[in-house]
Amino acid sequence: MDHRVPAHVIEIVRLDTLEICKDSFIEKDLKNFYSDMLLQETRDKREKRIG
């Protein structure tokens, strides 16, 4: 992940709480052309999504 995510993001994200989400930001008609990965982080008992 270090070579895909900027260092300043790695410093603030709690990597030990990351989970892959099944959701996507890509519209259905574009899924044949694009892909994404949505991650969720838990911090202070609140879930935050990272796309």
Number of strands: 3
Number of helices, counting only DSSP H or I runs of 4 residues or more:
1
- Average the pLDDT over all residues and give the rounded result: 80
Low-confidence stretches: none
Strand adjacency order, main sheet? 1-2-3
Computed structural class = alpha+beta
The percent of residues in helical segments reads 10-25%
SSE pattern, N- to C-terminal:
HEEE
Separation of the first and last Cα atoms: 13 Å
Biggest pleated sheet: 3 strands, antiparallel
Strand content: 15-25%
The Rg value, from CA coordinates, equals 13 Å
Could you say which overall geometry the principal axes of the C-alpha atoms support?
A: flat
Oligomer: single chain
| Number of individual domains | 1
Provide structural commentary.
The chain is of the alpha+beta class and about 50 residues long. The chain has one helix and three strands, in the order H-E-E-E. A three-stranded antiparallel β-sheet has the order 1-2-3, with no helix packed on it. The longest helix has 6 residues, at about 5-10.
Keyphrases for this structure?
24% strand, 1 helix, alpha+beta, 12% helix, three-stranded antiparallel beta sheet, 51 residues
Secondary structure elements and pairings:
Layout: H1 7-12, E1 19-20, E2 39-43, E3 46-50
Antiparallel strand pairs: 1-2, 2-3
Gist of the model:
The chain is of the alpha+beta class. The protein has one helix and three strands; from the N terminus they run αβββ. The longest helix has 6 residues, at 7-12.
